[in-house]
Design goal:
This protein is mostly helical. It has one domain. Helix content is 74%, strand content 2%. It is built from ten helices and two strands; from the N terminus they run αααββααααααα. Strands 1-2 form a two-stranded antiparallel sheet. The longest helix has 32 residues, at 33-64. The protein starts with a helix and ends with a helix.
């Protein structure tokens, strides 16, 4: 389960959808709260490992970068300050939606049939990127907000968060690699925020030695496989092959709809 989380969190095929399907196929119940939180922490560690230099500069810019208002526009002193505040902006839509409707969406759309439908939709978003020319426009408030709004779709099991946000960036005119990097960095506050909301409940529970070992094993596996998945996606998207993941999503989605209730 840790490997499935790590791989599918960054490949545009929906980690939440694949976890639900894996539980059904393997004949196991939903994983515990602690396990769910920790494998997500593992995927965050993967992002930090790949982009640690940029993340450090962005965090520093968030507190030290001086934003100025001139001639009706906000002026950023450097790229890292721009990215810092645009990441904040893009985080807001999904964060608000997750707080308001997150639990309801998970309960209503966690069935395999719903996952199958959402995988078909994900495939459609991915396939469309094959026909978009990449003019390499600068990351702006509008484009960051478009990616942030698209991230709301990732709350639905079967809608790939990375897939729909990278696609939104490409559709808005961003370079493909820049869209991927912004998407991966944007996942950090969302994943940590969702996990933080469950930490209080975790603190009230006891934990056995065997469960602790399982949790650590799952988190480490998610971190390692997530690191590999990020590297793979970055190479594929530079090659212009990102849209080919659509065929996988369509195939799995149709199989789920036909054979799983």
């Amino acid at each position: 389960m840790g490997a499935i989380q790590g791989i599918t969190e960054f490949l545009p095929v929906s980690s939440s959808g694949h976890l639900i399907l894996a539980e059904r196929i393997l004949g196991i119940g939903p994983q515990g709260l602690r396990f769910t939180v920790m494998v997500h922490v593992g995927t965050v560690l993967a992002v930090i490992a790949v982009f640690h230099k940029r993340i450090f500069k962005i965090i520093k810019a968030l507190f030290c970068g001086r934003v100025r208002y001139r001639k009706g526009r906000l002026r950023f002193p450097d790229q890292y300050t721009r990215w810092a505040w645009l990441l904040v902006l893009a985080t807001i839509p999904a964060a608000v939606m997750g707080i308001v409707l997150g639990d309801m969406i998970e309960k209503e759309f966690c069935r395999p049939f719903g996952v199958g439908i959402c995988l078909l939709l994900t495939g459609g978003f991915l396939f469309g990127t094959r026909f978009v020319l990449s003019p390499g426009k600068e990351l702006s408030w509008f484009r960051a907000l478009a990616v942030g709004i698209a991230q709301i779709g990732g709350i639905f099991p079967g809608i790939s968060r990375s897939g729909i946000t990278i696609s939104a960036g490409i559709y808005s005119g961003l370079k493909r690699r820049e869209s991927a990097e912004f998407s991966f960095l944007l996942g950090i506050p969302l994943i940590l925020g969702a996990g933080a909301g469950k930490i209080t409940a975790m603190m009230k529970m006891g934990i056995s030695c065997s469960e602790f070992i399982n949790i650590i094993a799952g988190a480490l596996t998610a971190a390692v496989t997530g690191y590999i998945a990020i590297k793979i996606v970055l190479k594929i998207i530079i090659m212009g092959r990102f849209g080919f993941f659509a065929y996988y999503c369509w195939t799995v989605g149709l199989l789920v709809i036909v054979f799983m209730k």
